[in-house]
Amino acid sequence: MSDLRASNFKGRTSGSVPDFPDGVTVVSGISTLDSQGVRVAGIVTATTFVGNITGTAATFTGALTYEDVTNVDSTGIVTSRGGVKVGAPTGVGVTIGVDNAGDAIFSGIVTAGTCFKAGSVSGGAFGAGVGVTITGDGNAVFSGITTVTNFEATGTLVEAFSSTTTAYSSSGDLNISNGNLQFCSANLGGTTNTLNIMSTTGINTDLATGQALNVTAITAVNAATAYVNAITIDGQAVTESWVGGSAPSDGGSSGYDTYSFNILKTGSETFICIANQVKGS
């Protein structure tokens, strides 16, 4: 075998490329060139690459642009700076972070085997600001206001109530942030009583104009001379329209009396209140 040293090889005519039909060993053990292409066992550095890559792994330190990929199999984290779309171009099923970072849009059913949470994420875990938690058993917890156009309950509808052992009196507050149904196991603290309906943020803040709420107060009684005949909202006097045409003038002598108030907001700090008393004795 003889050595051939040359600076370069050129085709017979200008612009042509010489053929090596039997292959060429460029550096023994590193790469070979034949009619099947170039096979490299080590590192390939190229300004431009066109064609297919086969093998077990490839590492790219710059930008990688490719089209018409059938499958992408990653054993680690895949990071996409511009977002991810999954599906046919005319029927994308999933869009993640394409328009706004963190957004995810699904065109079909989203199934979470254990739990779905939405809210504040700190350090990769959900913190105290979680707004929605939906568990696998069908329970849903919302930390804020839930607005629905239509609501249909096929099972038992359960409502929590606020319970106190401190008697309602003329300064008694019904904080409905603890529940719209209020129960007091103590007798009324006075004869004529005014109850203040309020919340942590304020009823005027909680209600928009055109919205309404119902508050029910149940209290123990032991004398007909003790009753509720007025309310205030956020500490401000309102005019009640009592069912029957007039405010209560007595209460039950035993058991429990129930007072209900339908409150309609017609403007800022402006309310209509329909009030009703039902005596237990």
Q: Indicate the percent of residues in helices.
A: under 10%
Question: β content, as a range?
Answer: 35-45%
| Shape label | rod-shaped
Low-confidence stretches: none
Average pLDDT taken over every residue: 83
Gap between N and C termini? 121 Å
Radius of gyration: 38 Å
Q: How would you spell out the order of helices and strands?
A: EEEEEEEEEEEEEEEHEEEEEE
Strand order of the largest sheet: 12-14-16-20-21-19
Main β-sheet: number of strands, strand sense, barrel status? Answer: 6 strands, mixed
What's the quick description here?
The chain has one helix spanning 203-206, and strands at residues 24-27, 31-34, 37-40, 84-88, 91-96, 104-106, 115-118, 121-122, 125-126, 132-135, 140-142, 161-164, 173-175, 181-187, 192-198, 212-220, 227-233, 236-237, 240-242, 256-267, 270-278. It is an all-beta fold and 281 residues long.
Describe this structure in words.
The chain is an all-beta fold and 281 residues long. Among the domains are: 112-152, no CATH class; 161-278. The protein has one helix at residues 203-206; strands at 24-27, 31-34, 37-40, 84-88, 91-96, 104-106, 115-118, 121-122, 125-126, 132-135, 140-142, 161-164, 173-175, 181-187, 192-198, 212-220, 227-233, 236-237, 240-242, 256-267, 270-278. The strands form six sheets. The chain has a six-stranded mixed sheet with strand order 12-14-16-20-21-19, with no helix packed on it. It has a four-stranded mixed sheet with strand order 13-15-17-18, with no helix packed on it. It has a three-stranded antiparallel sheet with strand order 1-2-3, with no helix packed on it. It starts with 23 loop residues before the first strand and ends with a strand. The relative contact order is 0.07. The mean pLDDT is 83.
